[in-house]
Each structure stands twice: as C-alpha cells, then as structure tokens.
Design a protein that fits this description.
Layout lengths: L2 E12 L2 E7 L2 E3 L3 E5 L6 H8 L7 E6 L4 E4 L11 H6 L5 H10 L15 H14 L4 E5 L7 H18 L2 E6 L2 H7 L2 E5 L6 E6 L11 H13 L2
Parallel strand pairs: 4-8, 4-9, 6-7, 7-8
Antiparallel strand pairs: 1-2, 1-3, 1-5, 9-10
Bound molecules: adenosine-5'-diphosphate and magnesium ion (MG).
The site of magnesium ion (MG) has 3 residues, from helix 1.
C-alpha cells in the first residue's frame, strides 16, 4: 500500500490535558479522508500533528510527502493586497498563479481585494493558495464551516473536482457530518476528547454521494449513532 501518512499510537497532551489518545491510522496516497468529531475533541490538534506543526507528540508519525498545502476555516488573505498579490507572496511564478486561479474559477477576480469577494470566493482563493505549492497532500481544517450552504457545496465540489485531476491526498477535519460523507472516501469518527477513533467507515463504494441524496441521509443517521 502506498501510504502518505501513517501513525502508530499517536498521543498528544498539553500539560495534564490529553487531547489525542493512542491513534493508529494510515492514510493512502491520493485518498480523501475525513476525521469527524465534535468541537473541542482535538481535530485541529490532530491536523497540526499530522502536518508536522506539532512535534512533541508521543508515538510515531511517518510522513511520505514533500509539499503540503493548508486550507483553514479563516481564509487569512491579506486585506490590502489584491488576490493576485496575495498569491504572489507564495510564488513568483505567474503561470502557476494563473493556473491556480483558473482551477478555482476566480481568474476574473484576480485584481479584486479580498473584501470585494464573497465568503465562498475567499475560501476558493484560500484553496488556490494551497494549490500553488503543487501539493501532494492538503490539510483542511473545517474550511466549509463559515459558508452558506450554497457556497459550501460549491467549494466542496471544486475541491473534489481538482483533487480527482491532481490526485493529492486530502485530510479533512470537521464536525460537519454531511461534509464528511460527501467529501471523503474514508471517515474516521472521533470520540469527545481525548480523541480516539470510535468507528472507521469505508465510503469508496459511494463515490458520488451527494449533499441531499437519500443515501447521504442514511449515512448521516448511522454516523449519529456513534457521534457523542
Ligand atoms: P477541535 O479542533 O476539535 O475543536 P482542538 O484541537 O482545537 O479541538 O482542541 C482540543 C483541546 O485541546 C481543547 O480543550 C483545547 O483547549 C486544547 N488545546 C488546543 N491547543 C492547545 C494548546 N496549544 N495549549 C493548550 N491546550 C490546547
Ligand atoms: Mg478546530
């Protein structure tokens, strides 16, 4: 199996507070996985461990990737720079900037300032910035949460469409059950903190799960039984 990230007994504490407990998982190359759990259960901490931002964990993490992109809940665009200039901070390669903007369908808005863009467009800009590094993995920390439903669906479709073309590994953490179902090929349901995997769901047979399909509602009901 070609693996992007593998953990063995990953545990992370802050002082006396244990946030992640004994997590052993493997994320395959080009796979889309979601870690689903309630607020405060340790999702951001997990993502920071997996992406190498936290280093004082115990247990093991094997990471087999070179370029990582990040998409967080807040777009974190520099307000006084145009979208184009925001991306210029990441690379001087203008072709790459153009390609990234095209992929997220924002090429017409390159010379707008962030405040002129809707929340959904700002998040697509955020995605464009992650794509610029030509990532082999992208870490998503609840990127859909602050969006209205329509923008949420549009962003998710953009992520999936581009991921299918470019095949980077995707690691999403979220408390949105539907998002996880629509987004992921494998879902890990986490317990309330400290985060442990209480259930793993293989979604590979459900490639075209849609936001409002009866199948999605069925999964949602099933997942709720495990969800604390
Ligand atoms: P989630 O993303 O699921 O909402 P977090 O990973 O942000 O959860 O936080 C899990 C727990 O760890 C919370 O109780 C939070 O207060 C605590 N925590 C997160 N980061 C730190 C830190 N750097 N120092 C101390 N406690 C932290
Ligand atoms: Mg979080």
């Amino acid at each position: 199996m070609d693996v992007t990230i593998k953990t063995h007994s990953l545990t992370q504490s802050f002082g006396n507070l244990k946030v992640i407990e004994d997590l052993t998982i493997a994320i395959k190359k080009s796979e889309r996985v979601a870690f689903l759990g309630p607020s405060g259960c340790g999702k951001t901490t997990l993502l920071r461990c997996l992406s190498g931002l936290i280093k004082d964990y115990s247990g093991e993490i094997e990471a087999h990737y070179s370029n990582a992109g990040f998409v967080f809940q807040e777009p974190r665009l520099i307000p006084w720079s145009t979208l184009w200039n925001n991306l210029l901070f990441v690379t001087r390669d203008e072709d790459r900037i153009r390609r990234s903007l095209e992929l997220v369908e924002l090429e017409e808005f390159a010379h707008h300032h962030p405040a002129k863009l809707s929340g959904g467009m700002q998040q697509r800009a955020n995605l464009a910035r992650a794509l610029i590094v030509e990532p082999d993995v992208i870490f998503f920390d609840e990127p859909f949460q602050n969006l209205d439903l329509k923008s949420n669906i549009k962003l998710m479709e953009a992520v999936k469409r581009i991921q299918k073309q470019q095949k980077w590994t995707s690691v999403l953490v979220t408390h949105g059950i539907r998002e996880a179902i629509v987004f992921a090929q494998r879902i890990f349901i986490l317990s309330k903190g400290p985060a442990r995997v209480v259930k793993e769901i293989d979604m590979t047979q459900e490639e075209e799960t849609e936001f409002f399909s009866p199948r999605t509602a069925e999964f949602e009901r099933m997942i709720l039984e495990y969800y604390e």
